[in-house]
Design a protein that fits this description.
Layout: E1 4-9, H1 14-30, E2 34-40, H2 48-56, E3 64-68, H3 82-88, H4 91-103, E4 111-118, H5 125-130, E5 135-139, H6 143-157, E6 172-173, E7 182-183, H7 189-192, H8 196-206, E8 214-216, H9 224-231, E9 237-239, H10 255-261, E10 268-272, H11 281-294, E11 297-301, E12 304-305, E13 314-315, H12 328-331, E14 336-339, H13 344-349, E15 353-358, H14 362-370, E16 375-377, H15 384-395, E17 398-400, H16 420-431, H17 438-453, H18 458-473
Helix pairs in contact: 11-16
Length: 476
């Protein structure tokens, strides 16, 4: 029985690495001949990847190895595109490691069956071609996002559209992977704002068509229209998810756990906005007013924008009173809690949580579905507006606070503020939802998510199909 190996290359940063490791575990469970090596990257000054790999190293499956790519000591964050330059500058190191693996793939070594690239590492397709290796993409978001990116690439490079014309536009676009017209206002800001970032993103996504297949972090039942719409176009897609890291747990003496333990089932609305989500000033006060007026029990993870030049995106508040309405914390004592960082998966899993005000990042979206917690959508950045549109308008598993709010990272002008009335209304709809509404739909979708990963489920079958295609592509 000939053994074979895949090499995964995630982009720097923890979220893409953790998704990659969890995807690798799923694939390893499908075929005993398979081994996987993950090449990790860590930005200078960032220790999160080292911390994570040290934490999980003892519990990794025996056929899964993590190998750190060498650092680039001369790199510095000089521009918005510096992250992508850092990735691209690893091409020599990637070529060397892959060459060494190929050179030693006889004897006790496994045959290298291909590389699996993060969507921001697609420049390494060139290395794969040089070394005569098959090349796949691991797309950490869902099928709708993939389809939208392909559509935008078509507009730009085949139809010669200037994407900036869609900024603040009321146009609705016939994106093939959506059953409904997609408002231009939910397109990711990076595409319509123009500039070097748009060029970089589009250059990566244009190369998706050069891969031998795309592994998607979704499951067929969640995005059936999108998956089917891509079946007639290349490259081939494999919806193998949901891929989740559910390892976060509360300590027994955790104050947040004690608060939730004291609340009735499905009575608490949880507000959490991802690793980059933060609020200051007017917007934080509007959220506070909405929570107080709704009368709902709540747990709110509130973080503040980092100071310019700090090298960070978010910071923790030393005193929530500096940003919340006067007396808010006293008036809501016992009813709600305001905290900093939150163990999101553990919180969503708690039976007291009945609603989730979320930025609609894809990991958060899948976690809300997995635990059957309906979302009040408050997207902030990246493809989150598109995710919110899908959840609220197509899938029907969310209520919309807003679909087109965009977080102001530049700080060039007065930031947009979503009013307390809009926030309160969506919270009331989510928390008051009966079985036939969004709550019933997301709970049913959660059952389908679990079934998809079980033997014979759609994602289980897609995992096996991917491995069969990898093996067939190298003639094993």
């Amino acid at each position: 029985m000939e053994k074979f190996e895949l090499v995964f290359i995630p982009s720097p940063g923890l979220s893409h690495l953790t998704a990659t490791v969890e995807a690798a575990k799923l694939l390893l469970a499908r075929d005993g001949r398979l081994s996987i090596t993950v090449l990790t990257m860590q930005l200078p000054g960032d220790t999160s990847v080292d911390t994570y790999t040290a934490k999980i190293s003892a519990s990794l499956p025996p056929r899964l190895a993590l190998t750190a790519l060498p650092g680039l000591p001369d790199w510095s964050r000089q521009s918005k595109t510096s992250l992508f330059e850092f990735i691209d500058d690893q091409i020599t190191n990637v070529r060397q490691i892959l060459s060494n693996l190929i050179e030693h793939d006889s004897g006790d070594r496994h045959r290298i069956a291909g590389i699996v690239l993060d969507m921001f590492c697609l420049k390494f397709i060139d290395v794969a071609r040089e070394l005569n290796l098959r090349c796949y993409c691991f797309f950490t978001s869902g099928a709708c996002s993939l389809g939208l990116f392909q559509y935008v690439v078509k507009l730009k490079f085949e139809e010669n559209k200037e994407l900036s014309e869609f900024k603040n536009s009321d146009a609705e676009l016939p994106v093939p992977c959506f059953s409904l017209p997609v408002p231009a206002k939910v397109l990711p800001a990076v595409f319509v704002d123009g500039g070097p970032m748009a060029d970089v993103f589009l250059s990566y996504f244009k190369r998706l068509s050069e891969t031998d297949g795309v592994v998607l972090n979704t499951f067929y039942e969640f995005e059936p229209y999108a998956v089917e719409s891509m079946a007639a176009r290349g490259p081939k897609v494999y919806p193998v998810g949901p891929i989740l890291d559910l390892s976060s747990q509360f300590d027994e003496d955790d104050d947040v756990k004690r608060f939730l333990d004291d609340q009735p089932e499905k009575s608490v609305v949880f507000l959490c906005f991802g690793t980059m989500g933060s609020f200051a000033g007017a917007q934080a006060r509007e959220i506070a007013l909405a929570l107080e007026s709704s009368g709902c029990r709540f747990l709110w993870s509130l973080r503040k924008p980092a100071a310019k030049g700090s090298g960070k995106l978010v910071e923790e508040y030393d005193d929530f009173g500096e940003v919340l309405p006067e007396g808010f914390l006293e008036r809501t004592k016992g009813v709600g809690r305001v905290i900093g960082w939150a163990a999101q998966a553990a919180t969503l899993a708690h039976p007291a949580v009945g609603g989730f005000v979320s930025h609609c990042g894809w990991n958060s979206t899948l976690e809300s579905v997995w635990f059957g917690v309906p979302v009040a959508a408050f997207p902030l950045y990246a493809e989150q507006q598109l995710n919110a549109f899908y959840l609220a308008r197509e899938a029907g598993v969310a209520e919309a606070i807003t679909l087109d709010y965009k977080m102001d990272f530049k700080g060039d002008g007065e930031p947009e503020t979503v009013g307390a009335g809009e926030i309160e209304g969506a919270i009331r709809r989510v928390m008051g939802a009966e079985g036939g509404g969004v709550r019933g739909k997301v709970e049913e979708m959660g059952r389908k998510a679990k079934a998809a990963l079980e033997e014979g489920g759609s994602s289980y079958i897609a995992q096996n199909l991917f491995i069969q295609d990898v093996v067939g592509n190298i003639g094993l």
